[in-house]
User: Which sequence fits this backbone?
């Protein structure tokens, strides 16, 4: 069963054709890592999945086999089912850590305050930040912020998690703590799509690695195969650049 | 001079006290209305509807392009030819319409200054446009609007002196009357100035406290 499937996914920004007939499938429990040079459309692809960007007319995105129609379906309901974590965290600065996590379940799903808090504490424990629930986002390190952001997305019980370069804005020494959380999620069977530059992580955690260039998926394979013997010249060139950097 | 100043303060103490009450009422009423007007026009200006934009731009453009005293007289004589309006309410309304344009721009600026990532994070969690505005964007915008809003409120407090020309017995008109009676205009206007100064200083302290109260995360060093 595919949690997400795209057909003929195209996206233009004005004249710029950033996604070209992308066909992506993500099966339940699968961890898909998307790599590629900057400007290749990785983030745009991710953002089209939950309609933060609207795909061009004629594109199709299916969630659990059901096509999403942005004209007819309530996209808020669609987004509830997909968690997203951003490069720059985007925690709500006027809410403390606990309330960052409870605000959506309480106000979107109508979960009671008590239940939302209990769930938030459980998630904070899972990301290793139980002692930070009363703290303001501005008092956290980047790695801590990102772990709260992951907990915030998980609080909505999403069917799939979308990670958009979640370690790219972090100091190098803080990357590991965030990847550890993502890895735990993967180990627990969470379906996820992750855009990243962390090749070591891709090799270790991904079920499938996708290479994008110029708005197209040019190659995809399980990580062992992908990194050992890339078929495409552009993949080879890209890998040699990032692995020897 | 100091003794004659004291004489003036003493002689008109109760008149100025009553006038201070009127000035505060004028300011409170007009600024409360200005916040409502400002919020409405900020949303009209941010709206995607071109007619709403046009209405907001016309209002803000006209108010900013005309002196308050003209608006005051225009409203007073214009409106009172249609409906009976006390000079207090005509004055309050004019002050509100005037300050509302500036408040609208303050709110619009504050709302637009919130990082777009805040919208995206909220929407990605399934919040509607409306909930995103109410729960995420507006609370942060109000916080950011407090310093310029405080500034605008101080201007509003001082602008209320122009309502003297409609015959409302606030601080400035009380000073005019007193000066005509006591033949000590220098001391009398000095006293009026001191009243305004004290009010503004008290107000400044209150705004600063509110700013701290609304920014709980800034209280702790990071």
Assistant:
């Amino acid at each position: 069963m595919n949690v997400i499937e795209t057909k003929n996914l195209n996206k233009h920004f004005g004249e710029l054709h950033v996604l070209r007939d992308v066909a992506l499938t993500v099966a339940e429990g699968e961890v898909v890592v998307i790599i590629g040079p900057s400007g290749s459309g990785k983030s745009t692809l991710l953002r089209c999945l939950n309609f933060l960007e609207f795909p061009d007319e004629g594109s199709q995105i299916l969630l659990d086999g059901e096509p999403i129609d942005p004209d007819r379906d309530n996209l808020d309901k669609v987004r509830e089912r997909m968690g997203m974590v951003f490069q720059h965290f985007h925690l709500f600065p006027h809410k403390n850590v606990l309330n960052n996590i409870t605000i959506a379940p309480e106000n979107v799903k109508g979960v009671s305050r008590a239940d939302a808090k209990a769930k938030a504490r459980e998630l904070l424990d899972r990301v290793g930040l139980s002692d930070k629930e009363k703290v303001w986002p501005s008092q956290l390190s980047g790695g801590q912020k990102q772990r709260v952001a992951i907990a915030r997305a998980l609080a909505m019980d999403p069917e799939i998690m979308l990670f958009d370069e979640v370690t790219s804005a972090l100091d190098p020494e803080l990357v590991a703590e965030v990847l550890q959380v993502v890895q735990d999620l993967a180990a627990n069977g969470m379906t996820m799509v992750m855009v990243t530059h962390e090749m070591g992580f891709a090799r270790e955690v991904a079920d499938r690695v996708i290479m994008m260039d110029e708005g197209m998926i040019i190659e995809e394979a399980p990580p062992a195969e992908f990194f050992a013997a890339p078929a495409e010249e552009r993949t080879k060139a890209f890998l040699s650049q990032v692995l020897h950097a | 001079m100091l003794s004659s100043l004291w004489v003036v303060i003493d002689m008109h103490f109760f008149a100025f006290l009553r006038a201070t009450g009127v000035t505060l009422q004028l300011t409170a009423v007009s600024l409360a209305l200005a916040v409502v007007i400002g919020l409405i026009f900020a949303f009209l200006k941010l709206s995607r509807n071109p007619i709403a934009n046009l209405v907001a731009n016309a209002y803000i453009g006209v108010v900013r392009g005309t002196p308050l005293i003209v608006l005051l007289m225009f409203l007073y004589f214009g409106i009172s030819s249609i409906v009976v309006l006390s000079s207090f309410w005509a004055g309050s309304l004019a002050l509100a319409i005037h300050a509302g344009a500036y408040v609208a721009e303050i709110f619009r600026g504050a709302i637009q200054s919130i990082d777009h990532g805040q919208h995206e994070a909220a929407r990605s969690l399934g919040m509607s446009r409306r909930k995103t505005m109410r729960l995420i964007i507006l609370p942060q915008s109000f916080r950011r609007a407090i310093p310029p809003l405080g500034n605008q409120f101080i201007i509003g407090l001082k602008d209320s002196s122009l309502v003297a020309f409609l015959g409302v017995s606030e601080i400035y008109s009380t000073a005019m009357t007193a000066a005509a009676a006591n033949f000590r205009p220098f001391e009398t206007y000095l006293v009026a100035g001191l009243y305004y100064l004290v009010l503004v200083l008290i107000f400044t302290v209150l705004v600063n406290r509110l700013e701290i109260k609304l920014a709980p995360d800034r209280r702790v060093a990071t």
